[in-house]
Structures are given as structure tokens and as C-alpha cells.
Amino acid sequence: MVTFGMSTFITFGGIRPTSQTATNIMAATYCFALQLMMLCVSVQFFYRYLIIVRKVYITNFLYFAMLMPPVIVATSITAYFFYAIQNAPSCAEKFLFYLKENSQEGFVPCVQFNIKIMGAKVLLIITTNVMVTEAIIIIIFNLLVYRYLSQKAAFTSTENSIQQQLSATLIAQLCVTGFCAFVPAICMLVNAILATEMAWLPVFSVCVLSLSPVVNPVFTVFTVKSYRKVVVYVIKKYVLRRPGATVEISNVILRSATK
């Protein structure tokens, strides 16, 4: 993604479409994946609320049913995004000339997203409202679970500790996903509104956007105590190679093999 004047241009490397329609479809697919990733975060909090507070037995069918609202919303936003870019002006000739200078191919895949166009403005408003609504839903369900655990649940200290770790993990994942999605979007939007041409900003945005799938599992591993102990054990045994080292995992002592 590159900002040029008041527009944001989506270009492609690797798998490169060979027509404008294929380019728009690929851009819409990227939009769908990003929206679905963001919207499915709230499903984890709703799932936890059902099994802890409401004591609902979650079947596979019910879990897939909970995924349907995010899929429907993401599909609707993507459909409007595809409609907006299909009816948007073609990429600026000046920008296409710049791209062709760095490409050996005749057709350069490019999608222009101009915030001056009404369709782009409506799409930004819809997306912002959806994200704010999701944040409110997450906060509400997390507070309901926290209140139940702190006041009504008769859990043991171990169970409470596990639930606290899970809460911290979910919140950390939410923060990472929000940071990796919203910060690049804000950077690109500000760059387009101010009509600046900062070459480092698109590179920074794309790098941050790619962090979420990597950082989220790392937060999970090091926030949940049992996972963290397994990682420490593996590091001590196979990386540091300390024979005889022991580590307790879920009240079970694992002893490394001695030479």
C-alpha cells in the first residue's frame, strides 16, 4: 500500500493479477481477510462468557453459528469495498508511470482508494462504526466474566489463576490485533489526508500489519503459566542442554534425561 496525494494505492507483489478485475478481486480478498480477523476476536470473548457465566455446552454447530455474524459483516463490507473500487477512477497515470519504471511487465496491478470519493468515505464510516461496536461488545463480555469470577463463582485458587491468565491472554491478543490493524490504517489515512509522500510510512504500515499472526501466539505461550513452563523446559533441555534440570508442568514433574 502506497499513499500518493489524497489516494491510497494497493499494489501487488508475488502473485500478480493480470487484469483490473482480477486486481480488484484480490484487493477485496485481502480486505475480507483483514476484516474477518478483526471481527472474530469478539467471538472468543462471547464464547468464554457462555461457558463460564451461562454454563452453555458449546457444540461444533453452535461454535460455527457464533462465527456467522463476523463472516456476514466482513462479507458485506468486502462487497461494498469491491463495489467502491470497481467504480473508482483508475490509478493515476503519474503513479502508474512510477510503477512501470520498476516493473518489466506490461500490466501493473493497482487499486486506487481515494478518500475524496463518496463511496470511500461511506466505507470508512461503516468500518469505523463496526470496529467501535466490536470494541464495546468485547469490553461488556469481559466485564461480565470478570464480575462473575470475582463475586459469584466458587472456583478454586488454581481455577481462578487459570481464568486470570486466559483473560490476560485474550486482552493481549486484542491489543496486538488492534495495534497491528489500526495503526497502519491510521498512518495511511493521515498520510492521504495530509497529501504527504513519506516513503517509509507504507513500509512501516505493511510490516506492522504482518506482525499479528506471529506476536499473538507468543503472547499466549508466555502469558499462560503451563505453556510458559513447557517452553522453559524445552529451552533448558534442548537449547541450553542442562542434564538433570526439572520443571513442574501442571503439577507433574518432568525430568530431563541424564547422560
From TrEMBL:
Pfam families: 7TM_GPCR_Str. It comes from Panagrellus redivivus. The keyword Transmembrane helix applies. The chain crosses the membrane at residues 27-49, 61-85, 122-149, 170-193, 199-219. Keywords: Membrane, Transmembrane, Transmembrane helix. This is G-protein coupled receptors family 1 profile domain-containing protein. The keyword Metal-binding does not apply. The lineage of its organism: Eukaryota, Metazoa, Ecdysozoa, Nematoda, Chromadorea.
